[in-house]
Amino acid sequence: MTAPGFFKRTLTKPDGRLLLLYGRQPIMDGLVATQPLGDAPAPANPHLRWHPLRGEWVAYAGHRQNRTFLPPPEFNPLAPTQHANNPTELPAGNYDVAVFENRFPALVAGAHDPPAGVVDTRPAQGACEVVVFTRDPSSSLGKLPLDHLELVLEVWADRTAELGARDDVKYVFPFENRGVEVGVTLQHPHGQIYAYPFVPPIPALELELQKQHLQSTGRGLLHDVINNELRDSRRLLYRGAEAVAFMPAFARYGYEVWVAPLQAVPSLTLLSAAQRRDLARALKTVLLKFDGLWQRPFPYIMAIHQAPSDGEEHLEAHVHFEFYPAFRMQNRLKYLAGSEMGAGVFMADSVPEDKVKELQAVEVRLE
Amino acid sequence: MTAPGFFKRTLTKPDGRLLLLYGRQPIMDGLVATQPLGDAPAPANPHLRWHPLRGEWVAYAGHRQNRTFLPPPEFNPLAPTQHANNPTELPAGNYDVAVFENRFPALVAGAHDPPAGVVDTRPAQGACEVVVFTRDPSSSLGKLPLDHLELVLEVWADRTAELGARDDVKYVFPFENRGVEVGVTLQHPHGQIYAYPFVPPIPALELELQKQHLQSTGRGLLHDVINNELRDSRRLLYRGAEAVAFMPAFARYGYEVWVAPLQAVPSLTLLSAAQRRDLARALKTVLLKFDGLWQRPFPYIMAIHQAPSDGEEHLEAHVHFEFYPAFRMQNRLKYLAGSEMGAGVFMADSVPEDKVKELQAVEVRLE
Lengths: 367, 367
Description:
2 copies of one chain form a homodimer.
Chain A: E1 7-12, E2 18-23, E3 47-51, E4 56-60, E5 97-101, E6 121-123, E7 127-132, H1 146-164, E8 171-178, E9 190-196, H2 201-217, H3 221-232, E10 236-239, E11 243-246, E12 257-261, H4 273-293, E13 300-305, E14 320-325, E15 327-329, E16 332-333, H5 338-343, E17 347-348, H6 352-360
Antiparallel strand pairs in A: 1-2, 2-5, 3-4, 3-6, 5-7, 7-9, 8-9, 8-13, 10-11, 11-12, 12-14, 13-14, 15-16
Helix pairs in contact in A: 1-4
């Protein structure tokens, strides 16, 4: 952990899985890693198969069908353990953020040989980690104090560095699925990190287009997008000294918002302390506006796109957050249907210039 | 209408929209095109904006937020008109299938100039049509008699030919969204056709990979996939003289099924009568297995991928149906979340060799 003011402790669970505890204060001694009771998951055979008509890998992990599904509060596996006879994934203690290896991983270090088949296959190497944002089951990413949110950013950076250093990892992807509307099976505030053994198709396409733009103009593509948004100003939600939040002019989802450092930092690991601080402010602004819009937790997918961990420099990359909200208007879900899923063309019912006004009208207080 | 045994009549609605009626019998004279009462939709400004980081067009159509949403049966706009004072989109009559221009189109012929913005824009040219599969609100695509299903195939071919001949149309995409689980707002059995002014990203990628395979091997890519599936045989659901249905070894969805002619016919317009007949049998088999699996209507997205309508020959193309079911197991929806939507990597909880057995076990009777 390089960032001053943050603390980290590394533990190992009884079943061998990694457990990392992070804090704004030094983490107390004597913490012992726990895990829920019950049988270990059935033997996994995670593997990848090549989809020849889409040119992408598909991940298969048969044991995930039985993963924990919306447990009652007393069986929340992400809350700190309260009774020794009912251990959860996390011990009690004074940490703020915890990371551990998913009990039902779709990608695993040292994955064994895949079954021979009629398409190309390969072992599903990589990692699936759970990032618990807080010990408080009733909190949320947006409710965290700013310095706690900064710690989360530092945790993502720490995991990007450590996972990205592995030979079998080419791309580290932190994300959050929030709300039952996007399929969340555990309500405790948490995100996930997938470390893929290849650069996934969506970041790969973004990076390729960013590279082409950099080569032809000498400028960063997202940097240009941000400068256009700053100049136009109609779709801005936050503008700080180091970070910006906006609804892109080309938003595909009704309330899609992007958050990024103003400068083209390729990866979370390269953020300065000032950039991290302002990014936390931008993120908290967006998250509070989301929850304030209808006075209810606002479901979304949050994707962090950054440079691959393939040893190259990736000057074209510009780390950013993309939020894909589940609703297109109050009480109306956005369904991805024929045009979106079968053709790849998003159909929006509204223009960003109108939708952003709803979020702009929500007042938020950061501290 | 070239196919013998099918009949077609062309009408115009009071508001100028096209109405096409198709039948297995000659269509009666004297039918008058109708439309629902009420104000015409607010003026549309459909347009496309370029997403520079994904390299794709996004379609915007502000008036679609107010489109008809799950009306009660007496206001079903897709049922034949029963009372002159309560007209629907369709007249009473002896037709089997009807097609009309969507009242809330996201793509329109002669779309006007898009607003100037900070990203590239263009008019949302093209067409959005509704295909009503039957006059019976309680039927479904799979319940139709085989010759009625053949007619639907011929209707799709007819629209592909007519829309594809337009200068502003480069790709004709017939699809069906089925079930409230995929966002369907009208329960009457129907599909849609989008005619895009460009080749959409997903078919474009498929075609590019098919072209590369054809150039390097001299064989069709889907043709090779099909032959591998026939040889392996574990994932087959239907095997006729001219058509096949199978769960691909690289299925991304739990119950994903593909249906295709055995030979590499590029487009629906080029199907022989024998191919169309056997495709109808393959489709009906799959649809009845879907509905028989849990004895309930089975929600899915059905996408038809075929050659572009750009005047080129497209020997690499091989028309096929891809079904993306909404459920990954009984009562459990498949949510597309962080990995799928943010990275482009599908995570399957099961392997096709297991899932296909559930569908194989469902017995169906075609006639």
